[in-house]
Give the backbone structure.
Amino acid sequence: MRIEAIGCEPLQLRRVHLENSRSIDVYRRNGGYEALKKVLDGMSPDDVINEVKKSALRGRGGAGFPTGMKWSFVPKDSPKPKYVVCNADESEPGTFKDRYLMERDPHMLLEGMLIAAYALNAKTNYIYTRGEYRYLIDIMDVALEEARAAGLLGNNILGSNFSCEIYTHTGAGAYICGEETALLSSLEGLRGHPRMKPPFPAVSGLYACPTVVNNVETLTAVPDIIKMGGEAYQKLGTEKSGGTKLWSVSGHVNQPGVYELPMGYDDMEKFIMEDCGGILGGKQLKAVIPGGSSVYIMRADQIIGKDVRMDYEGLVAAGSSVGSGGFIVMDETVDVFESTKNLTEFYKHESCGWCTPCREGTDWLVKVFKRIDNGGGRPEDAQLMLDLCDNIEGKSFCPLGDAAAWPIQSAIKRFPEDFKKRLATDNTDGHGPDRSP
Amino acid sequence: MATELAKVTINGKLFEVPKGARLIDVCREKGFDIPSFCYYADLALQASCRMCLVRIEKMPKLQTSCTITVTDGMVVTTQSEEIEKAQRGMTEFLLANHPLDCPVCDRGGECELQEMTFDWGGLEERFTEQKNYYAERYLSPMVANDPQRCILCKRCTRVCDEWMGEEAIEAGGRGSHTVIGTYLGWLDCSQCGNCIEVCPTGTLLDATYRHQTRPWELAQNISTCNYCSDGCQMSIGSRAGEVRRVVARDRYVNGINGEFLCVKGRFGHPFINHEDRIRTPMIRYKKGGKLIPATWDEAIRHVATRLDEIAEQHGRDAIGVVGSPRLTNESLYVLRRFATELVGTNNYTTTDLHSLQSFFEHLGAPLATHRDIRYAKTIVLIGGDPSELQPLTGKQIRQAVRNGGAQLVLVNSVPIRLREQTALFVHVNPGTEEAVLLALADPANDSLAADKAGVDAQQLAAARQMIKATDGDVVVMFDAALSADAQVVAAQLATVFGGEGRRLLLHPLPLFNNSVGAHDMGLMDRHLSPYQMLDMAGDTIRAMYVAGSFLPEHLEQGSDGLAKLDFLVVQELFENATTAAADVVLPAASYAEVDGTFTNNSGLVQRVRQAIPPLHQSKADWMIVDQLAQELGLDFGYQLSPSAVFRDIAKNVAAYSGMTYPALKDESKPVQARYAAGAAGADSTAALRSRVEALAGNGEKITVTPDVGEELFRLGMLTEKVPQFRLLASGNPRPETTAVSPLYQITVTREQANGHG
């Protein structure tokens, strides 16, 4: 397990290797809460939002929406209370960066949230953590107590007239609650179902009040943006996506771990083969899912020798996307049919059941996968699965329907051989094996 | 108020529609059909079935037309290859786990999923895998459930929440294993069955109708409910002279209630074909003897002879005539003509518990329809508990508040369930609602009212302020149990609160389906209460002619007059305490067996239609009276035609003038009686003030909200014939297994059920 910054000075990972890194003392000795002080000492909320806008920071949860713009959507003249909610649900398969940030540097998240709360005039804020991260709640609660004791939380923070509270909250372990509106439903104590957009949370979110929901890594980037200035932060990355990005690398590499790369890191091949130590056991690279399970799977030949730039535009050009940065590497031993079946079972299990295509589509797809796996594959199944995916994609209530369809579509299109060999059965009448009891 | 228009292009055609209109409604109105399951008028948007997808220019994906409001310049496509594929895809998904057991499904033939599949689905079934399985079960004596058939449109959970405020059913589980269910496995609610009504598939089923017939074998007759005064329109499904079910499904009926019915309206019908119905006329030849079956001719002759004798001996006023507020206007009208013209007595009345005579005599504002209530801006509810006694009114109030943003001012001694919806709850001492009414009418009475009602005088001022600040309709509802003096004040409230841009409407809350009609037909104009009638019985009144029965309350609290009568004739469906004292019992036909009209608490005159022929030898109440009149030598000239009776009503009852059966034909356009504006008293509040001054006003406040069903499940003469109601009345016990109908597992006798209630 390697946790390291490559190609840039560590920002997010600056303190994670230090002893006692989660304590407020270590945090403060290493530049912690300086950004908050700077903000309270003379920046207006608009100044903060402007810096974030200039930084070209994009949401690190997966959708990549420009953070500064999201913040500026909050209506300033609304008489309602405003909320900042940290999305620490980190439920995207293959993603584990937020967990390390919270585990090893919880105060960085608190500082980021406090600055966001200041910028948005939010008095009450929540950290929503997935049910499986129970132990992180304890770490965050200790950090909150430390911050409170140090006058960084509560009334008149650092002697200013800014007052603010942060609470932790845990979900019950549902993928859907990582979707921001479902997260808000869950936070309100309702069933974790997504809500209709518009209205967007920035206008009507938690308790129908203006709310900003940001990923952990997005919020932890904020202190550095304030300290170095938005422009300097942007310059670390590319014009449209500034700063650095954490990649959670797992799978068949010699050195899996959390890597901090500047946006626009120049070559994915180099990243896999050198930075991550190459493929485990010297085998051949077969596939990469670069941005968490919901993005298009990439073939090795889309990476090797193609100079794939690791940022939003670069990965889209290469046929996938950044997503949450859950970087899953697969070697030649992997049967993409199997891995896709595994993922589809996940999506079926986690479909919240609200809308028809996602609920019924994923259930049906799993049934087809299982039938094929049991030797009942039919030649027309690949087309059937693609068609089912097409009926889900773009038609579901929330983006998770698309997320379920994309891995399957890309797997069938990019690894047809892994599917074909399962579909060519001895049953040539095209109706699969005899299903009579 | 001019609405701003927006230009919208749908499938290449340009339309001008109100800005902000919902796209799916606009498309449907303009003739472009769009399928949908979860979109349901007046329920919260859901956008989950994904059937109503359309393409809108400049939007990246297909959009659900139920969530889109029309903006100027919008260009919409509702039909294209892409959209058709999406619609076929969604239908295919919905059918994937839906069992194709239509031939044994009660909903088969009137199932929206079937229709939608025929209209929008694909031809080929590609799903060849195993379907998810869940066992059938019962959720209550009224509701059966087959979870497999569910397509999760969640109309049921939304009506349960938004219409009924009960939240008794909710989705459990996740993903494709989501199942609609109850808390603790048994449906603890008012059992309205609206979840069944709105279910587009056979997931929630009428447990009383299970596997009885196919829907297309039913004769469906639109009629008016015979329980409370709301007058819901419903469809009576009968087969071979037997009523099998009652629904309000709007493809057949489009009345004031839409698809709403309450537990009584929907499940309270089995009394109609009950074996205890009185089958023939019966005569008790001597007091204390038995009732002996007789022919109609014998019975009518016997009654005519005895009435003649008594009139001769004691005078015409010695004969009392009493009608039930459950009878049709036709029956009550003929009964009153019988009393005044033939018998010539002054002693006639109804067996209603409360009279609205004083209210109507001083009526100073229009009556609110249920639609008016739904769109009212302020609702003042004085006494009563509509959720239990007038459930449609209760639902309209709830929706007005929840979906329409209305303010509810609740004046009650009991924190009834509607309290959850109140903007202002004036919690008065028991029996002092009238004090608040007095204060509403005249602020000079604030301190008196506040003292008697045990409330803060500021609350009274706040209530008046809320009414006066209203821009829109104000509906004042009041319990018909209010005193005559209070009714006069309520009737005149418009003089206090009417104003620019504000309309004050009144909505009385009587108890019976035709309480208002009984007033209109003039049966209450003598201001005689049933108790006074019973007091006179055996004294100045020697014989009584009763169409219907005295209520148990009358007989328990009133004097034992019936036993002292020389002669008592009763027209009834069932034998009861009144028929036990009768000398002649005549079998009457139920509302399902007759034609006529009921007038509801909004003054809407609505049709009652014959669904099945009269059972056994029973006859419509008015026909019995008509036959007796002929025997006594007067022919009303109706020739057994209810429409002839109604024409006569329209001629002689001013509020009904011009009405005919054809004019009342369409239940979607109900006709309101035109009541004359009543005279205001010189000081209408003076009488009420002295009443309020006399109130004790020191009772202890009631803090307990009554259970759901407190009134709804109370057994009456009709509901006690329905075994399911006995289960409800005895606390709706959960049976050992939910796989079998509770009716086969639990037997509750009438006595047990009464004992519990």
Notes: Chain A has a mean pLDDT of 94. The first strand of chain A starts at residue 2 and ends at 5.
